[in-house]
What does this fold into?
Amino acid sequence: MYRDEPFSAYRRHPWHGLEPFPEGGAETGTVQAYIEMLPSDTVKYELDKNTGFLVVDRPQRTTATPPALYGFIPRTYCAEEVARRCEHAEVADGDPLDICVFSERLITRADILLNARVVGGIQMIDGGEADDKIIAVLEGDNIWGGVDDITDLPPIKTERLQHYFSTYKMVPGKDINIRVDHVYGREEALRVIEAARADYETHYGDLQRSTD
It folds into this structure.
């Protein structure tokens, strides 16, 4: 993603082949995000972990669409360390750490990379598994670019995310067990990211060292 990097003849795997931070991002709380879904998507798209291609996971059963750009932070993994930060979960969901990015300008395609400044997160518990959602704003955004913490966002922005994640798996006649009541600020979000990076190192560090 940087001009001074050597050219790669092959596309890098969005989860394993990219850095979680742009240059200087670790110091400023700015991450690199891979976007899987747009606010206009009525189909659930997800990265295929083996091939690195974006695939159709399922058509959404309801009319709900994500209120923000939705994807994950590369080289993160939600396992023991992430679960340890969640009082009501003993395990995590075993996926890369999810991120929701607010942008004032309409972005019309997924399968892209962008830089986003972390402002907070939602501690989601899905069926007893920790499944945190980091909340961020697009770097340089003309409306949201000055937001530093979750408290700087209009409360309705977070409420819409909570509503979406509490209902997007609903099926008529079936109960779901999802909690999204705990919202946290920037500092806790950065600690969750570090926990997810530690989990990635534990579970995929040998793979990473063999390919770097």
Q: What stands out?
A: Residues 66 and 112 are 17 Å apart (CA to CA). The domain at 25-211 is CATH 3.90.80.10 (Inorganic Pyrophosphatase). Residues 186-211 form the longest helix (26 residues). The two ends are 16 Å apart (CA to CA).
